[in-house]
Amino acid sequence: MKVLILTPFYAPEDFGAGVSITEMATTLAARGHQVQVLTLMPNYPKGEVFEGYRGKESMTEVMDGVTVERQLVVPAARDGSLLKKGMAAFKVQGAFLKAKPRLVKPDVILTVSPPPFAGIAAQKLAKEWGVPYVVRVCDIASHALAAAKASKNPLSILVRNLEAKMIRGAAALNVVSPSFVPELKAIGAKDAPIETIYDWADGSAIRPLPGTDTFRAVWDLDGKFVLMYSGSLGYTSDLIPVLEAIARMEYKNRLALMVLGAGPKLAEVKQKAAELGLENVRFRDLVPRSDLNRSLCAAHMHIATLTPEGAKSSTQGKMRTITAAGRGVIGVMPTDCGEAKVITEGQFGVVTDNKDVDGLARQLDDFCLDPELAARLGIRARTFFEANFELQHCVGQIESQLQSLVG
Fold it and tell me: 293 lies in which domain range?
C-alpha cells in the first residue's frame, strides 16, 4: 500500500505530534508499506527552523524507510499571538500543494488535524489523483480556539469553515477520543465512518522505572510525594485549581509539585503559585526526549487537566506516556468528559471536577498519607496502556482502516 501522510510535525522534532506521527510512519514502513510524508522544515517547539534545515525552500530525505518531503513555511514563535500562529498555519496549505510534482501518487492519503489547512491540501490532492483521504482528528480546532476565547475573530471563522469542509470530504475519519464523534457530526461528518483510535506511546521506549533510576535525587525530591505536570501549559490546560488545592492541603509539606513545560498559561500559573506562597511548586523546562522516561518516573502520580471548554475538543495525549511509565493519573477536568471516562474506566487514576478544589485537596492528602495507593494505580496504568495505548496496537488499527479503503 502506498501511503502519503500530510502533517506539519515530524522528526527530528521530538515533542508531541512530531513523535507520534513519526512513530506511525516508521511503523507502517516497517510493515512493508511505501510511506511518504509531506511536512515542513522542523521548527517545533520554539518556532525556529532547526540547524541543518535553514536556508532551504524544500528538501527530500529518507528516514527509517520513510521518504520525507519538506517545504519551508516561516514559523511563528510558540509564544507568539494566535493571529501570527494562524497565518503561519494558513501557509501550510499552499506549501504542501506546491510539493505535488515531487510526490509519488499514493493509494490513500492520511492527514492529521489540527491544523485543518493540511487537511484541505490533502482534500485537493486526493481529488486530483482520484484517491481517498482519511483525517485523523487529534483536536477539534474550532473548539480549541473557543477555549482560547478567540472564536469570533476572522481567522477562527475561517478555521471553522475549513475544518467542516475537510471533514465532509473525507472517506473516513479516526478520532483520539469517542467524545469527538458527536462534535464532528455536528460540524459536517455525515456519512464517513468514524473510528476511535487512541493516541499511543512506544512501550519499549517508555516503561516503569524505580524511583532510584529517575531524576528524583537530582531534583532533590527524595522523601517527598512527587506530583508532576509535564507538557504544554496551553489554553485548554487548567492548573490553577491544582495550586489552590495544594494551598488547602493539611499535609502539603509532604508534597512536591513539578511543573515541566511552557505555554501561554505558564506566566499565570507561576504568578498564582507565588501569590499562594507555594514553595513546594517547582518549574522546569521539558527534558529532552532521551530523558523522558526518567523524568516521568520521577513522579509518584501525574496531573492531567482540561478546562470545561477544552474538554469538548481536546485530549491529554500525555496520558499515553504517563501510563506507559506505569504511573497513575489525577484528572482535573469535567467528570463526564471523554478523558475522565478513560481514567475511571481504566481504573488507573482519580478524577475531580475543576471546581471541586476541596475535594482535590483531600485526594492529594490521601496520596501523601498512603503512597502505596499511587503504586497500585501505576500497575493498573501500565496494564491499561498495553491493551489500549501501545504503539503497535494503535498503528495496526490505522493500517486496517487505510487498507479497507484501498481494497
Answer: 211-388
Q: Are residues 57 and 13 in the same domain?
A: yes
Mind spelling out the 3-state secondary structure of the chain?
CEEEEECCCCCCCCCCHHHHHHHHHHHHHHCCCEEEEEEECCCCCCCCCCCCCCCCCEEEEEECCEEEEEECCCCCCCCCCHHHHHHHHHHHHHHHHHCHHHCCCCCEEEEEECCHHHHHHHHHHHHHHCCCEEEEECCCHHHHHHHCCCCCCHHHHHHHHHHHHHHHHCCEEEECCCCHHHHHHHHCCCCCCEEECCCCECCCCCCCCCHHHCCCCCCCCCCCEEEEEECCCCCCCCCHHHHHHHHHCCCHHHEEEEEECCCCCHHHHHHHHHHCCCCCEEEECCCCHHHHHHHHCCCCEEEEECCCCHHHCCCCCHHHHHHHCCCEEEEECCCCCHHHHHHHHHCCEEEECCCCHHHHHHHHHHHHHCHHHHHHHHHHHHHHHHHHCEHHHHHHHHHHHHHHHHC
In a domain, 219, yes or no: yes
Residues 222 and 339 grouped into a single domain? yes
- Phi and psi at 67, nearest 5°, equal -80, 120
Same domain, 383 and 398: no
pLDDT tens for residues 141-167?
A: 766 666 555 556 676 778 888 899 999
Please check whether residue 206 lies inside any domain of the structure: no
Residues 7 and 42 in one domain: yes
Q: CA 113 → CA 9, 140, 155, 221, distances in Å?
A: 11, 8, 16, 38
Residues 52 and 85 in one domain: yes
Same domain assignment for residues 187 and 125:
yes
Please compute, for residue 176, the number of CA atoms within 13 A of its CA located in the half-sphere on the CB side: 24
Each residue's pLDDT tens digit, 12-48:
998 889 999 999 999 999 999 999 999 999 998 788 9
Q: Is residue 160 part of a domain?
A: yes
Q: Domain holding 291: CATH number? A: 3.40.50.2000
pLDDT of 55 strictly over 70: yes
Task: Count the domains in the chain.
Answer: 2
User: Domain check: are 69 and 40 in the same one?
Assistant: yes
* 40 within domain boundaries: yes
